[in-house]
Amino acid sequence: MIRGDSLSSRDRDHFDWPLFIAAVAIAVLGVVNLYSATSVYSGARAELYISQVYWLFVGGIIGGVLIALDYRHLERLGYVLYTFGVFSLALVFVLARDVRGSARWIEFGAFRFQPSEFMKVFLVIALAKFLHDDPRNEGRTLRDLAIPAALTAVPALLVLKQPDLGTATILVFVFLTIAAVTRVRWRSAALFVVSIAVAIPIIWEYVLLDYQRARVLVFLHPEEDLLHRGWHAHHSRVAIGNGGLFGNGYLRGTQNQFLFLPDQFSDFPFPVFAEEWGFVGGVVLVCLYAFLVVWGIRIASMAKDRFGAVLGVGCAAIIFWHAVINLGMTSGVLPVVGVGLPLFSYGGSSVTTVMVAISLLMSVSMRRYSGVASLDRL
After folding, report:
1. In terms of pLDDT, which residue wins out, 34 or 145?
2. Where residue 373 falls among pLDDT bands split at 50, 70, 90?
3. Handedness of CA 57, 61, 66, 67 (dihedral sign)
4. Quick check: 10 pLDDT over 80?
5. Distances (CA, A) of 274 to 72, 198, 205
6. Membrane-spanning residues where (predicted)?
């Protein structure tokens, strides 16, 4: 029987203020940066920062409900939520409108949402339920991870079909992160690495689309297509370099103000921030993300059950891989794959998803005191 339908006085006393403050700091910096990034536009795009505030408010309400409820209630809904997420991804191919060659959003009048964003959390909950129901504590083989891998492959392939390589990659990386802490036997881990190495040429030839392969080639040889496919990445690096140590000052970033930096409110908000606040500002932002991830792993390690431990690892992995991939592609160390920066990039579905992930971490954190650490028992 699960107790704790609402917050007890003990739970309220253990409110995770460090997690809350770090998330709020990133969100506030994100809105401030979004105002600067869209200040060069007029009309609706110039007011995206207002929409971002609304979505943060909506995400806060949903997060508050999740914090008040015991996270263990989600265990019973794990596969239901997963099925709903997969159904929504399939529905995209029927209802979604093509935008720049991709169909990712389902629209209902003025409201639209991106199912692939919410699928990240649904997948984590489903994987947490599976591993919680699996009683084994000894090292797992690849056969033992076949079902979790299949749970990941279905939504990942649907998302890749949209096409959305960035989100599909996030789903796979979240699964790999969770698998990495489940005590996989070293022989199975080595076999998995070999399998990945063999699969890479196949994925390159038969899975990736032409424009996706082109992005990788531009990353490897940026000087060959600087004025076309390499434009985004080039001016992103220029903006970061222009920031110097302390930056050019708020609303004074040349790459943004003169419209050299495309998608500066969605995929490339960090170069805007780095040019205005410099290396110091960039380090502060990176440290905030690092704190969220490390704190999330800490919460997972202190969870009182396996479901909470996997939930914590998965939610921290969502934030980690988003931040790593976005910062990597904007700084030129990774190919451009269209992954946003958590709570920093504009996007209602993205903001809500990250807020839900942080709220689940908060729920696990506030209810960990009646049990013992369980991450070592995964």
Report:
1. 34
2. very low
3. positive
4. no
5. 40, 38, 36
6. 20-41, 53-71, 77-96, 141-159, 165-182, 189-209, 277-295, 307-324, 344-364
β-pairing verdict for 106-108 and 111-113? antiparallel
Q: What is the DSSP string of 18-57?
A: HHHHHHHHHHHHHHHHHHHHTTT--GGGGGHHHHHHHHHH
Q: Sign of torsion, CA 101 103 105 109?
A: positive
Q: Which two tokens stand for residue 164?
A: 């959305």
Mean pLDDT, residues 320-338 taken together = 93
Q: Is 307 exposed, middle or buried (0-12, 13-18, 19+ CB in 10 A)?
A: buried
Q: What is the CA radius of gyration of the chain?
A: 21
Q: What are the tens digits of pLDDT across the range 223-247? A: 666 666 777 788 899 999 999 999 9
Tokens in use for 288? 């905030």
* pLDDT reading at 4 higher than 60: no
CB atoms within 10 A of CB 139: 14
What the block records as the tokens of 321 is: 């891989």
CA atoms within 13 A on the CB side of 308: 27
How far is Cα 194 from Cα 233, in angstroms, rounded to an integer?
31
**Could you identify the residue written with the tokens 């500066």?**
264
Residue 80 CA to its chain's centroid (Å): 22
